[in-house]
# Entry
Amino acid sequence: MKKIFALVGTVILLAVTGSAAFAREGYKLWLRYERVSNLQRLREYRESISAFLVEGNSPTMNAAKHELRLGLRSMLGEGISETDKLNRSGVLVVGRYGTSSLLSRLDLHSKVEKVGSEGFVILSGSIQGKKVIAITGNTDIGVLYGVFRFLMMMEQDKDIANLDVVSYPRIRLRMLDHWDNLNGTVERGYAGFSIWDWHTLPIYIKPRYIDYARANAAIGINGTVLNNVNADPRILTHHYLVKVAALADVFRPYGIKVYLCANFDAPILLGELKTANPLDKQVQKWWDDKAKEIYSLIPDFGGFLVKANSEGQPGPSDYGLTQADGANLLARALKPYEGIVMWRAFVYTYNAKDRAKQAYNIFKPLDGKFDDNVLLQIKNGPLDFQPREPFSPLFGAMPKTNLIMEFQITMEYLGQGTSTVFLAPLFRETLNSDTYAKGKGSTVAKVIDGKLDGNTLTGMAGVSNIGADRDWTGNIFGQSSWYAFGRLAWNPNLTSKEIADEWIRMTFSNKRDVVDPVDGMMLQSRENVVNYMDPLGLNMIFGYNNHYGPGPWVDFSPHPDWNSTYYHRADSAGIGFDRTSTGSDAVSQYFPPVADSLASLKTCPDRLLLWFHHVPWNYRLKTDNTLWDQMCYDYQAGVDSVREMQKTWNSLKGKIDNEEWNNERMLLEIQEHEAVWWRNACLLYFQTFSKMPFPEGIGKPDHTLKYYESLNFPNAPGTW
Ligand code: GCW
# Structure
């Protein structure tokens, strides 16, 4: 008998605390649609919506209907009906403006006019004396975006009594770039294998593909590059193209176009030609034919993304031609079908005096030489997705070229899968930077959204952090950076706090005692990592090749600029890369007010100091600490703040889903170890140059420098 009680007890306990089977697991991302728990709100929502009416039957409108069924019923209960008549108050009326007879009775013209081909209007109004909420736009996809936004507002506990939302994207191409290989691995992926199952496509359509499209459409992403920029040319064979076409069919109703990375040498590598020279007529014909084949399978194919003459990839320089010659070759093949080329500016040779200068030197002279369906895709900083970089000097310097920003959402250099880092502050920092290209206020955001130079073909790309892990990103907070990327591509003026707030509410809870502390954690999280990895403008001091953990001692690469020592330049006199006129003069690539301020030790912000200057160890910073002491304090502050995050997280036990809480607890424990490891390894290493003692308050390393140098991680993820 006792045993039976014990068993029943266990079952009840499991039901209450949530066993693995009931845990939320993060799969639904920001579309969890949980029952509204604030009863007052629930009442208000139900008063405003008793039924919904969707006009139109296109696949996109059907997707909108599906979403409303799912979302409204799950958040408000089964009583919400679908109707085709406006016979009472409280109907949510959804349809395209202009074709919907009901919506034309609302005076929406001036609002709808503003939102273009992808925006939407959500409005409280009344039709024939009946109170309604209207969701509308000029196109079906605009309407679908509106439906998602409306449902997400409800998830966020927003008041829907007097709605007047007018929203449209400021940037045209809002892209996720997958670095997924055809064999299922993901370069720099930390959330498992690729979500694309090439083997079972085109017949087997995983529900995950549809959920991928839903989640992306919900945040306005309208393009996906399916394969790695280190491109396997076989993606362009018929065998794969039919599979790509199947994915395109899934994504189309959600407004998402597919793009592919093309290998510049594909005509040779696929065994068809002896050359890939852009001036060769046969090569041109090869690409023309390839474009024709692709568009016969995928009529709305988006275009190509190309990494050329970089890290072993072939490109036009192999034929003594410019990057523009290469880009235009592909652009001309795609032009008849309105396809575009995103040509990466991440081009460098291994032995330059200063790698940070190369992209500018190569591309600036080509301004105006690219065809109008080419965008130059520029990483946010001049080097390579470091925890902190100044903005790339190419922003603002190429007024006659379409530009697309490339951010990295996957955290190759920010702690990879185990760290909790919300990347909106990093994205914002770049977008807010003032290039001074046309005087004060010429921010990177304005370059990117086309306002500064009047470009209309604009874009923002994010290197995806998505994998086949159940929660998509390995660490649930990885979802927040994917979310932030989409929101900023839609509106680059949103603040990090606004975005964090939205995400927390849809992911964990609407309760203030959850939202506020998690918000605090997230907003600080990127600076924490900078502090314990790369304070004061340090960069590129990661473990060799896998980029996991500290490796400031790395000096053994045959490529000089793959060595950490190339970047930090520590010696007995000081540390940092002199990029002023006495050094590489990279500062001169910026517009004068920026260049002057970076060039002077006095005005260069401490956070970028060692990026631009070689600074004596005992130099006094703006904090009045010596450089050495400040470096020690920053590393320690990084460790301390991870411990703060742990405290905050521990205080949330019981307030959010237990399994999600526990997963994050374990990840923070790993992050704390990593922060301590970084601090110890870097300070011990740099101390061999500074020869100065640690100031008070700095944790004592528990191992020798030799020990840290000996660590290696043969199967670290993401390195294939
Ligand atoms: O940061 C480097 C990565 C490479 C990547 C490259 C790039 C896809 O270490 O893995 O290759 O950038 O952006 O092309």
